Amino acid sequence: MSPHRGVFIVLEGPDKSGKSTQAALLVRYLKSHKIPFLHSREPGGTAFAEAIRKLLLDPRHQVTPLAELLLYEAARAQHTQETLLPALRRGKFVLCERYTLATMAYQGHARGLSLPLVRRLNQIATSGLKPDLTIVLDVLESEFNSRDKQRRHDRLELESPGFRRRVREGYRSLARRQPRVALLNGRRDVAQLHQEILQRVCRFLS
Ligand SMILES: Nc1ncnc2c1ncn2[C@@H]1O[C@H](COP(=O)(O)OP(=O)(O)O)[C@@H](O)[C@H]1O
Ligand SMILES: [Mg+2]
Q1: In whole angstroms, what is the distance from residue 206 CA to residue 196 CA?
Q2: Domains along the chain with CATH numbers
């Protein structure tokens, strides 16, 4: 039983996997169908959480894995209470780029922090809120350097290829184990992926 009336969909995947591209297409669809929605992202989604995002992604900082994890969860706690839950209570379609699965993949699998610890903090930060569906865009590590070459890389994007491979493998293994997670081939073309995402999302749009 979910305590709210809205739908909560999360887009996940490694850096440059196409999350923002697919989010923009889904937003266009929601607008054209006059479906009330909220498009948000993590870390971020409130003024305070966006300030934490800046801190987290600034390449000038050196951050211990635990400090990093706690900041992601602090931003998530604020975002969940201030933005996500109110929108869901109003019955909105909530689309978020990254949520709890990203922390499992990045801080758990890639940084090597304990998965039970990450799971527990996710639970606390979200007050138990869970996405109705998490869509993971799966791309090979090699896509990272061939896509969007102009992009100025943030602190996480400046990590090593080995780190990115662990993120990818983390997502793949999480997607296999968890319910309500769909793993899509992120190397298919943009329009085709959009159709696949719509197919999966449509059943939540009554
Ligand atoms: N399915 C796709 N195939 C090839 N390139 C893509 C695809 N989806 C997105 N891209 C390109 O990859 C880059 C990163 O996409 P973006 O949506 O910003 O990813 P993310 O938000 O996951 O970091 C952009 O240059 C985008 O145009
Ligand atoms: Mg993006």
Answers
A1: 18
A2: 7-202 (3.40.50.300)
